[in-house]
Amino acid sequence: MEQRINTEVWKALIRAFLPFKGRDVISILDFTREDLEELFERADYFLEHRRSYRLLEDYVVALAFFEPSTRTRLSFETAAKLLGAKVIGFTSEEGISIAKGESLADTIRMLDAYADIIVIRHRYEGAALFAAEIAESPVINAGDGKQHHPTQAMLDLYTIRKLYGSIDGLVYGVVGDLRYGRAASSFIYGLTLFKPKKVYLISPPLLRARPEVLEVLKERGIPFEEVTKVDEVVEEVDVLYVTRIQKERFPDPLEYERVKGSYRITIELLKRGKEHLRVLHPLPKVDEIEPAVDTSKYAAYFTQARFGVPVRMALLILIAGVEP
Amino acid sequence: MEQRINTEVWKALIRAFLPFKGRDVISILDFTREDLEELFERADYFLEHRRSYRLLEDYVVALAFFEPSTRTRLSFETAAKLLGAKVIGFTSEEGISIAKGESLADTIRMLDAYADIIVIRHRYEGAALFAAEIAESPVINAGDGKQHHPTQAMLDLYTIRKLYGSIDGLVYGVVGDLRYGRAASSFIYGLTLFKPKKVYLISPPLLRARPEVLEVLKERGIPFEEVTKVDEVVEEVDVLYVTRIQKERFPDPLEYERVKGSYRITIELLKRGKEHLRVLHPLPKVDEIEPAVDTSKYAAYFTQARFGVPVRMALLILIAGVEP
Amino acid sequence: MEQRINTEVWKALIRAFLPFKGRDVISILDFTREDLEELFERADYFLEHRRSYRLLEDYVVALAFFEPSTRTRLSFETAAKLLGAKVIGFTSEEGISIAKGESLADTIRMLDAYADIIVIRHRYEGAALFAAEIAESPVINAGDGKQHHPTQAMLDLYTIRKLYGSIDGLVYGVVGDLRYGRAASSFIYGLTLFKPKKVYLISPPLLRARPEVLEVLKERGIPFEEVTKVDEVVEEVDVLYVTRIQKERFPDPLEYERVKGSYRITIELLKRGKEHLRVLHPLPKVDEIEPAVDTSKYAAYFTQARFGVPVRMALLILIAGVEP
């Protein structure tokens, strides 16, 4: 196990020193802090100059969503189209040849034949890396398996930088399903590229962060602590990164009902926190955040969603090797 | 009930005096006759100059079809793309995060974050208005609930203007399901912005026009009469606006079979009418019109469908505040 | 039967002498050798100059996929978008008005109202011809029924021309389901426009080529032979065109299992063939080709898939009557 982790981190480190142009985007660990700063600078530009461009007009971008997604897909589509790219693709496995028994490898080869950049979403761990090994065109992981959703982490980190001016020196609380939620794991991995003051991992015992995630936190010397209740740490954190706890994760529905309340974010809870405390969420949310929070000063998640477009525009141009 | 109706009409009246640019399009009652004439003028232009434009090249248009649609969706897509807009969206609820339990409000907020104009189709009454209240971007109702489908009414009225030179002074027969069919209600509402000589509401007793629709006809002084058979009035009408009667509306299938025949439009029936009598239909049709009518001089519905593109192009540029 | 065949061939011959511009593309038999050479020349251009164009920027192309498809749909979409066309459409019958009982004729009329070129895929034989008779816009058959998939044949023939310099004078083996597979029939029809040295039709007795296909081979004087095993002819052929044999074609699953092995293409088998022997396949494939073939010199099918884009770009500009 340990061996496998280190190999993965090692591979990510190697990828992290490649030039941006033409690079595959598999894990947020593939990037250095400098990479992300380069990215954020372009995102700032596109946030300020929201209009259409012809930068990618000779590019075909394939959106290969083997698993449904709304936000990630629509923001990638918006980003690619605003850059002038031609966008093709599919939004679920149904109706594509996978249904006829075609191998994933063959489907990827087809996309590679038509597209210059492939954006892939897949429920299986490692699908994006597998695609990248087959395709000549760069592959962007739009979420696969339980750990990696690198472009989500990019926009999460970008949001914090916009809100606080810096990602360093803050206290973070990451709440919810840290075991199966790929957004949470990716966000934690992303934090390890910076210098957070402390990271609280807040989850029910059943949904604790994966050993490989803890391993990376340790290796990179990030102060962290696992706790089981939000209200233990709400006064200390600057950022609460909340994720959904799915009922289906619990063998016993009663156990889920019992646990749910402790992870619900309410106005009352947030009022006990710091003045500048803000809540992030990769969305969609169901009832893990009280609706009253939506219209309060605490809610940063709608702004966060909005940043999906400039951040993904920035990523696409860097991979294409063009500048606005 | 009465109160609610008047409030709705009142709100629509207020919206009707807003400038076109940036306006939400919820009900055809939101518009004045002058608004529609402004719209028809632009539609004339696009009908005559069918080509692509860059007028909306910096615009992202979201087509949010929570309920399936072919004609409305494809003609909006054609219109937006011919204007140079970037189009994103979805064509059914499946596969979007609504399926994961996301609230409609959150889905709208997401679309608002990515798009500059939101086109929404939803089975629930009031969904478009709800969306408009949440979104900063203008919202266009592409059909919701049982009453409102304003862009359909726009192209219906435009078709009549092209066929007869004027919408005023004609005798109209509106046939079919006037209770649950949103196209029929919207068309009747649309007529109240003009001066029809008379409007016949032709339907089985079970599917009579809704009280709120009759209320608006009365308030605006439009002469109308409810009848149950097309052949009672076929000699008098200038325009027959036909809609589908769905079997499912009848508790007893036998009742449906018995009723169906009286609402079927045949060549024989039409020959009894005026020389210039024309049949409109929002489409799709099933068997409520005899196939022989399709290729006769009476059929105006294919032309009507064709006008969906220039009328929707006109609406989009007026909302964006640009001119060809 | 004979009569019907001749009428079809006759109609195709007539279509084959029409100018390219505005032409319907129903069967590969609609084309002359000269037509295809004209097409291949443009495909060469687009293969060499892969970039976006504005040639079709005033065109709306409808992709009407009543039956799912991945490769054909995505390569048409890529081709149309790289030419600057606006692309609209649907990817299955679900969710379009066909589901509400609309006739195919009405659906085609709608597409005709919005689009300048209609690309249609349908499971029923003759659907594309039917559409062409109704629509004013040119119709391209993207596969219908069991015999016709003309654009697949175009790219197949183009691939052979690129591999061997010429389509004439070679020995072909067409393997698999020659009865129900439209790609196989279209490929054989396509070969009859050239001068193959010999065509082997290799299939289980149950899945032999259709009488109408054999009729065309005879009429056009193409030397051919029906055989039941690949290894009988592997040493003689220059090109193996392999297609999938679907389990569902066999009334008895045991019969399928027994037959399957004889049609599986392995490296061992191919090594017995000529030095320059190459394998084509319309894809998707399941297990009819041993995976080791994929990365061998024998595999031409991924290149073949790649050629779908330039060949379809060439076809679209010839139909639109524009030149790069």
- Total of domains of chain A: 2
Cα shape of chain A:
globular
Oligomeric state: homotrimer
User: Kindly state the mean pLDDT of chain A as a whole number?
Assistant: 93
Please report the two chains with the greatest interface, counting residues with C-beta closer than 8 angstroms to the partner's C-beta: A-C, 26 and 25 residues
Give the N-terminus to C-terminus distance of chain A in angstroms.
44 Å
What is the CATH class name of the largest domain in chain A? Alpha Beta
Explain this structure.
- Three copies of one chain form a homotrimer.
- Chain A has helices at residues 2-16, 33-48, 71-82, 104-114, 127-134, 150-164, 182-191, 211-219, 253-260, 267-271, 291-294, 301-306, 308-320; strands spanning 60-65, 86-90, 117-122, 139-144, 171-175, 198-202, 224-227, 239-242, 278-280.
- The first copy, chain A, is an alpha/beta fold and 324 residues long.
- Chain A has two domains: 7-149 and 307-320, Rossmann fold, CATH 3.40.50.1370; 150-306, Aspartate/ornithine carbamoyltransferase (Rossmann fold, 3-Layer(aba) Sandwich).
- In chain A, the strands form two sheets. A five-stranded parallel sheet of chain A has the order 7-6-5-8-9, with no helix packed on it.
- The termini of chain A are far apart.
- The interface between A and C is medium-sized, with 26 and 25 residues.
